[in-house]
Amino acid sequence: MTVHGQIIRFALVGVVNTATYYGFYLLFLALTLPYVAAHVIAFLLSMTGSFFLNCRFTYRTRPTWRKFLLFPLTNAANFVITTFGVWLLVDVAGFSSRYAPLLAAAAAIPITFVVSRTIMTDRPERRPGQQPSRPEPATTSAPGGR
To answer: The whole model's pTM is what?
Structure first.
C-alpha cells in the first residue's frame, strides 16, 4: 500500500476516532466530570479503538501485543498537544469546553501519523525507484585516495 493510501485511510480512521472520542467526552461532561477528566478518559477509550482500526484498515497489519504496547507512543504527542490545547482554549482563550477539543485535535494530526506509521509498519516503505540502503563496501585505499 502506498503512503498516500495510508494517509487517506489514517484520516478516515481519525474521523471515526474523533467522533468516538467526542461522543465519550460529551457523555462524561453530562455525567458532571470536569472537562479535563472527561478528556483523559475519552482519549484513552478512543485510543484503544483507534489501535485496532489502524491495524486492520490503515496499515493492514496484524495487531500484536508489541504494537499495542507501543501504540500509546503514537498518541503521546497527540495527548500533550490536545490536552494543552484544550486547557489553552478553555482557560486562556475563553472557548467553550464543548468545542475546544475539536480545535486542539487538528494541530496534532501530522505528528500522530508519522509516529503511528513508524510503529505500525514493520519497516518503512521505500519510494518508487529508491534503492535499499546498503553499507558502503570496504576499501583498502588510503583515506582521501581513490
So the answer is: 0.62
For the four alpha carbons of 73, 51, 121 and 129, in that order, the dihedral sign comes to negative
- CB-based contacts of 137, cutoff 8 Å, min separation 6: none
Kindly tell me the burial class for residue 145, based on how many C-beta atoms sit within 10 Å of its own C-beta (0-12, 13-18, 19 or more): exposed
Query: Can you say whether the dihedral through the CA atoms of 137, 139, 143, 146 is positive or negative?
Result: negative
Which range is least confidently modeled, 4-13, 16-25, 104-113? 104-113
Beta carbons of 101 and 21 less than 8 angstroms apart: yes
Residues 6+ apart with CB under 8 A from 54: 10, 13, 71, 116, 120
**Which tens digit of pLDDT belongs to each residue from 66-112?**
999 999 888 787 888 889 989 999 999 999 999 898 888 877 777 78
b/e sequence 31-63, b meaning 16+ C-beta within 10 Å? eebebeebbbbbbebbbeebbebbbeebbeeee
